[in-house]
Sequence to fold (241 residues):
Amino acid sequence: MIQTTFTKQKRELAKAAGLMEKLRAQEVRKVTYDANNVKLTEERVVYVDFGPEEIAEKVLSIVVDVVGQHGARQRANSRNTGRFDWCGVTADLTVPQLRALQDAHSVLNELVQKLPRRNSHTVPNTTVDGRPAFQHPAEKQFARRTRYKPYEEDSTTRVRTYEEYYEELEKSTQTVEIDFGLEPGAIESLRELVVDLGTSIQVAIDEANTKGTETDPVLNGVIEGIRGVFQSKIPAPPKRT
Fold:
């Protein structure tokens, strides 16, 4: 894969960050003299590898270089194209256009990964709205009721009543599991498509990046002017003695 200008810029900016970590306000030296004040040894307890003026100049140079690279790449990106070819969809696209496709690919990839798969452990026994479903047996719920029944006593003609309890069906509940999952074959096909789409986008980007670049004189002039302003405010390092 072609190393992008963006990767180079990140590496250069990391160098600048590393240089700034070396900024020190003070160096401590321990010097030993003999009785006649002649220096015997000098030990640097706290090091200052580079003076702040030197580090500032190095960082400014890196910033100018990175901005120049970015400007050249942006000018190239607006003109250089790569051939996008996927499932019969073809076009010559610039890098910004291909980056937009990469953003779309990221969303499509997430969609495909989250699509539900058909439940292979359940055998459907009905359909609901055209979808396979499994209908469980109904669960019946009964309520206890009381009724009074007349009867005649053997020794008299008087009619009496007695209570009789019975169960009456009150309601029934049935669970229906509707499978909204897609067929496994369809999901695998979609996953292959989204992988191929990502590859096709990257191939087109690599092709566009192999084409020549051209410096951006306007942006280069601006960053050089910015460096000049900073350089005018940072004093020159003192001469070493």
The two ends are 51 Å apart (CA to CA).
